[in-house]
Amino acid sequence: MRSLFLSLVLALPALAGEHQRFLLPVGPAGRPSTVHAYLFNSGRETIRIVDQGGLSHQAQPDLGAVALEAGANAAINGGPFTPEGEPIGLTIADGRAVGSPLNTGAVLWVENGKAGMSPAPSYDFKANHPSQLLQAGPLLIVEGAAVEGLDASRYHRRSLILTDGADLWAIAYVPGATLEGLAKTLTKPGAFPAFRPKTVLALDGGSSSGLWLRRESGQQFYLREISKIRNCLVIVPRNQG
User: Is residue 36 within 8 Å of 172, Cβ to Cβ?
Assistant: First the structure.
């Protein structure tokens, strides 16, 4: 299976994660798509949510500028929002809540230094007190198994966040795939080179999809989003989180 994938690891600063580039056969008729992922260990880096406060009069013009301002090692676009720029569901950015919780989709959260992803119906919004939270979805993989009933017809740019259920995490950009195709492919052994995903969450896709990371040389690698985004995830050293 691994022979199907080309992997290239690019070095990043000490205590930072890794940039991987590899192929996944998730395009139309199984054609390969080049996936870019940033792999990190939650013991060394953590997730912060940055909220831009709408679509007009944003503090930063794009994902890359947000990442630089935050001192991030990597960044990816966040959750869905209305045409007017209001978040769909609840967002908590550094303890500040915007929007209202929804009982659909999924929740990405960070509380007391621990990150996790849960289906929204099973997450207790009243009992938990996360410093960072983002509602997005759908979940593509839960407990290592592909979720049933995902869309199998629309090929779009996709943004994902993945974990092995322990310390290994990744954010990833896929240039063209269906949700069902990604879910089924990512459950195959070796499909995701760094680890076997236990949970995979789809972030806002399509023209919002973007991925930024900082290389060891200080140069930026940026797969730029097409449209403005309301919020994003930045990956920062734990002493900044």
Answer: yes
CA 55/CA 231 separation, integer angstroms: 10
Please state, for a pLDDT cut of 70, what percent of the chain lies above it: 93
pLDDT band, very low/low/confident/very high, at 14 (cuts 50, 70, 90): very low
**Cis peptide bond upstream of 121, omega within 30:** no
Is the pLDDT confidence value at 174 over 70? yes
The CA angle 113-118-124, to the nearest 5 degrees, is 85
- Given this model, what pLDDT does residue 4 score? 36
Residue 187 pLDDT exceeds 90: yes
**Is the separation of the CB atoms in 199 and 42 below 8 Å?**
no
| Statement: residue 88 has pLDDT above 50 | yes
Would you say 159 and 136 are in contact if contact means Cβ atoms under 8 Å apart?
A: no
Place of tokens 């990604």: 182
Strand partners, 236: 46
Per the structure block, which two tokens stand in for 85?
A: 């720029």
Give CA–CA dist 40/17, Å, rounded: 4
pTM: 0.92
